[in-house]
Amino acid sequence: MAEVEQGCELFSAGHRACGGCGPALAARLLLKATGKNVIIAASTGCMEVFSTPYPETAWGVPWIHSLFENVAAVASGIEASLKRQGRSEKVVCIAGDGATFDIGVLCISGAFERGHDITYICYDNEAYMNTGIQRSGATPYGASTTTSPAGKCSSGNLLPKKDMPGILAAHGAPYVATASIAYPNDFVQKVERAINTPGPCYIQVHTPCCTGWGFESGETLAMAKLAIDTGLWVNYEMVDGKVVKAKKVRRKPVEEYLAKQKRFRHLFKPARRDDVIANIQAVADANAERFGIDIKAKESSE
Amino acid sequence: MLEFMEGSHAVAEIVKRCRPQVIAAYPITPQTHIVEDLAQMVANCELDAEYITVESEFSALSACLGASAAGSRVYSATTSQGLALMFEVCFNVAGMRQPIVMTIANRSLGAPLSIWNDQQDSISLRDSGWLQFYAEDNQEAVDLHMIAYKVCEDHDILLPAFVCFDGFILSHTYEPVALPSQEEVDAYLPAFTPYQRLDAEKPLSFGMYATPEYYTEFRYETDQALYRAKESFIKAGREFGEQFGRDYSTLVEGYRLEDADTALVAMGSICGTVKDAIDEMRDAGKKVGLLKIRTYRPFPAPEIADALKGVSTVAVLDKNISLGGGGAVGTEVKAALYGSGAAVYDYIIALGGRDVRKRDIAAVVDLAEKGKGDMFYGLRTEVL
Fold first, then answer.
1. CA dihedral sign of residues B34, A114, A119, A139
2. What string of pLDDT tens digits covers the 384 residues of chain B?
3. Which of A127, B94, B131, B322 sits at a 20 to 30 Å CA gap from B159?
């Protein structure tokens, strides 16, 4: 346990994330939204490791890490304890997509079903980056990872991305949202709304990983924006299980996004895989249809 | 005043009087009566606590960890498969030095599935950093809960503890028990004062990762805390004796050991049967005694060596088996008595609820005195 001296930033610089780390930016924005009156419960993962090598910590707010898969249960206990003590701190979980979509689902489901007043933030970089870019339930179709590698007989991950926001909305979560570090104000506002909504709320923030996806570290925000602009990531909000708002875009072809990342390189070299690219375009088209994000003539972006 | 009650109910009553602020538990036989009773106490406003009905034992202990770190006294109870599911969290709780008290209604581990008693579950967590106390009867189970909170929350210790009592044999058995009143418990056990807690007023990071430069020292400090817990337990046990007249100021307890040639060593409810068997053997002129181990962790090796000075034959009753390595208690007793000259034999006994009678204890003593041991006792060879 280490104490921190802080200026106005509650998530301090000097941590050990890669240059251009999307999750590090998400952590900084998260604490801008929560302010000091918060307790953060973190899962094992990149963010935990780069921000808290003993005896250093980047966290200027109370922070706890227990295990990979139990963050929602730990937060349940913190919330119950604060309630008993009549304390006012907000309880916020921060966990990667592996901890959220895969190994932690049991604990998350329990915590959301019980209705604890917690906010769960999943920073989604679409694979197990801390252990070396292995496939998770959040890895998009067509991406090559170290456990779903592209090869002579495979075009990478053949499974679709799990609909985690839908799963948590189905638990009765009053507020579920997706966000992107490409739109920091939107993310901050969503966090503010979630922590001020009683009950369990979920935000899934898209945090591109230059190391795991294979792009230049200066391109992180551009990559996050391209995901939105192609319809492969949709920023939306669900209130009481219903989609109430989704960011509209003038969609670009998915190829513009795919071609800039090494994890999709096998779709272009040694030979173009038009079939797989078409399937990924179909994912974006389905997103556009489901959330109504296409800007029609004379309509402006929200 | 003695009250006639079920072991689980007695445990629930004393836990209530220890005033846990957060309880998180998941039902599993034979622990269920404890957590049902506590839930009813909360429902009746007899116990002012948050009761979290978690979806698994894994989450039960994880929630306890969060609540403890946030500054509450917490409680859970489990057994067998439930404890096995908590394995990862158990190591974490001890490493994070959270003073959680958890009752273990001891039960065997599958496969094959068995709901009946042995001590395989808690003993399999011996390396996790939890203190482990074993009760001989329901009175001791009640008393050890109060002592456990006192030892765990000692700021020089800050460790979690299992209070182990044998499933069904104690948990579902009615015995006369003296239940301390709320006022008496309050006088013995002060309100919980966390050493450090998650608090926006004083931000701290809990559960950071350690590089090779620091990991060993964390493990050393936790190990040292377990050894310090010996003194803390003795002190808390002595204070308990002064207040309630039942003394727990020793980590081991001898029964008719003074001039014994042969000593049995055991933990938990089997000690009652052993004592009766010893009385009969003593009547028949055999110099036999018992050494009961109350604290399996920290392991009282010097205390055992001291108590068994002058004994020529030792028979350890192990209600567990470290498969491929012998009984866990026997292995450690042998190490404790290394160089003493005593012949130490280990007997795997009473697994999965197999009943042990006085004549079985006498048979074990005969085997040990003939130099036969390190074996499963009472194997039904006809079904092999």
1. positive
2. 899 999 999 999 999 999 999 999 999 999 999 999 999 999 999 999 999 999 999 999 999 999 999 999 999 999 999 999 999 999 999 999 999 999 999 999 999 999 999 999 999 999 999 999 999 999 999 999 999 999 999 999 999 999 999 999 999 999 999 999 999 999 999 999 999 999 999 999 999 999 999 999 999 999 999 999 999 999 999 999 999 999 999 999 999 999 999 999 999 999 999 999 999 999 999 999 999 999 999 999 999 999 999 999 999 999 999 999 999 999 999 999 999 999 999 999 999 999 999 999 999 999 999 999 999 999 999 999
3. B322
CB pairs under 8 A between A and B: 174
Q: Does B216 share its domain with B303?
A: no
Please give the tally of structural domains in chain B: 2
Statement to judge: residues B54 and B143 lie in one domain: yes
- Cβ contacts (< 8 Å) between B74 and chain A: which residues? 77, 81
The answer to whether B205 contacts A52, with C-beta atoms less than 8 Å apart, is yes
Rounded to whole angstroms, the Cα distance separating A13 from B334 reads 55
CB contact under 8 A, B206 and A65: yes
CATH number of the CATH domain containing B58: 3.40.50.970
Shared-domain flag, residues B72 and B214: yes
Inter-chain touch B56–A106, beta carbons under 8 Å: yes
Residue at a domain's end among B244, B261, B296: B244
Tell me which chain A residues have a C-beta less than 8 angstroms from the C-beta of B219. none
Tokens describing residue A194: 């979630």
Residue with tokens 């040694």: A270
Boundary of a domain, candidates B244, B262, B285: B244
**Closest by Cα among A181, A210, A261, A184 to A19:** A210
B204 and A62 within 8 Å at the Cβ level: the answer is yes
Cα A58 to Cα A13, A16, A49, B45, B310: the distances in Å are 7, 9, 11, 42, 59
**Cβ contact, residue pair A81, B21, below 8 Å:** yes
A67 touches chain B (CB under 8 A): yes
SS3 of residue B329 by DSSP: helix
* Contact criterion met (CB < 8 Å) for A39 and B209: no
Interface test with B, best of A48, A78, A88 (most B CBs within 10 A): A78
B63 neighbourhood in chain A, CB within 8 Å? 73-74, 76-77, 80
pTM score over 0.90 = yes
What is the extent of the structural domain holding B30? 2-244
| Optimal mutation site among A34, A74, A105, interface B, most CBs of chain B within 10 A | A74
Instruction: Classify residue B242 by burial, with Cβ atoms within 10 Å: 0-12, 13-18, 19+.
Output: exposed
- Give counts: helices (H), strands (E), chain A: 11, 10
What residues contact B382, with CB distance under 8 A and at least 6 apart? none
Residues B236 and B98 in one domain: yes
Q: Is A115 on the interface with B (CB under 8 A)?
A: no
CATH H superfamily, domain A22-291: Thiamin diphosphate (ThDP)-binding fold, Pyr/PP domains (3.40.50.970)
Q: What are the boundaries of each domain within chain A? A: 22-291
B178 and B62 share one domain:
yes
